[in-house]
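Suppose you are handed a protein chain with no further information: no name, no annotation, nothing but its sequence. What can you learn? This example shows the usual starting point.
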Amino acid sequence: MAGTKSPHPALFPGLRPWIVGVVHLGPLPGAPRYDGSIRNIYKNAVADARAYADAGFDAVIIENFGDAPFFPGRVPAETVAALGIAAAEVRAAVAIPAGVNCLRNDGVSAIAIAAAAGLDFVRINILAGAAVTDQGIITSNAHDVLRARARLAPNVKILADVRVKHAAPIAERSIASESRDLVARALADAVVVSGERTGDAPHALRLGIVTNALAGAAPVLVGSGLSIANARKLLKHASGAIVGTSVKFDGVTHARVDPARAANLIRSVRG
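A reasonable first move is to predict its three-dimensional structure. Written in structure tokens, the prediction is:
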């Protein structure tokens, strides 16, 4: 894949908010809650991705959400294999850009999956610095991730979280400084700002601080909690959002995508 061009190069259009739908995979082989239904996992992933595409979402991102408790760093081979197959099936099913997040923080495997499946971007929770998380202390490895990208998939974009959810920084620095380092020193292509937990929205003030700090150097995306109720407020300070929980049936993260909820969110954002 090295040297090939992305089929979807315009990942961050400036004319409208860029809305990404999350495909939350069920527990994969090797995970504590895996029930042996791997074909159903792939089938549901494709169905959810198509629901997002049909609703007008700009992209989808696949993640091994059901694998908790997560590995803090590199994941085992069986996870990479299953996540890679899911990503390839989603990539073949929808024409919109697609990405992957290899939880909790395996950016090198995410890049490898993106190269193998022909994806357009990856999300990495801790690309720079270190954080105390429910997996313990996670230390970034941008040096490995960026070299893997240069070698395997140079056109893949990196969406990197600042102050990612379910985590806290080891040492206090300003979020503005952390955001600038993510772009200038860790070479992130976009910065993601989330709330404290999955499904929680970030404060608009925090989004504004990050956006002002970057001063157009990279797009800022809402990383969690965007809904019809808060979309207009939050998107005043961001170029787009990564959305999952609010467009699931009954607003439950583990549930399937509700096509009506997904379509209503897009209408509220575009209207």
